[in-house]
Fold this sequence. Notes:
Blueprint: H1 5-34, H2 37-40, H3 46-81, H4 89-126, H5 129-138, H6 146-149, H7 151-164, H8 172-193, H9 197-227
Amino acid sequence: MSLTERQLSFCKFGAYCSIIAGLCYAILTIFAFLLPPSIATYIATDQYFIDFKEVKYMFLALKFFHSAANLAMIGVVISFMSFCRDQNYAPVMWCTVIAVIGYAVGIFQNIQDASVIPHLAAQYELGNDALKQSIISFGVSNPFLFIVSLGLPGIWFIVVSVIGLSNSNIPKLLVTLGLLWGVGNILTAIAHAFVILELIYLVAFGAFVFAPLWGFMEGYFLLKQIKK
């Protein structure tokens, strides 16, 4: 298949974004494993604030790389639209829009966590018992936001991967990794929303394998299309 100049531009941009996203996901999942369980739940407790003092900068680094990954994935998502076959245009356009919404909400969520949680931790450490109980009652974050920030991109991965099954030009391993990542995103959203710690760590391990591998493979695949 010969590519137009516009498709070549999307192809190159999407390839670089995929590789950057893969690298960012590899780094942030390492940070996620190093953080203590109290931080992973996003539930405000005495132990949460005790642990946060020790891992504050690691937590902020995780939020930075997660935001960078989301920005890169927006580039990947819009690049996919340029290769969409006409018969699949409507569902791909729909899931593209919701994926961009999800990644944008994820960036907002990361910025909010990185700015609000350290402030709450500082107030908790200096405050009296009444203030500490108020902070714990109001919480440090809204884990149900993960349903949007991870769940919607998960739908995009599943939809484009299922559609990709009928495209002989796309490697089946790449499609399979996309499906696994999509399911993993949705499971992660459920795990955080309902505070299922075992599932959080299980899907984090899957993300450590599937997300970087998909990013690097997708980048290589797109760059190979340019050479053709």
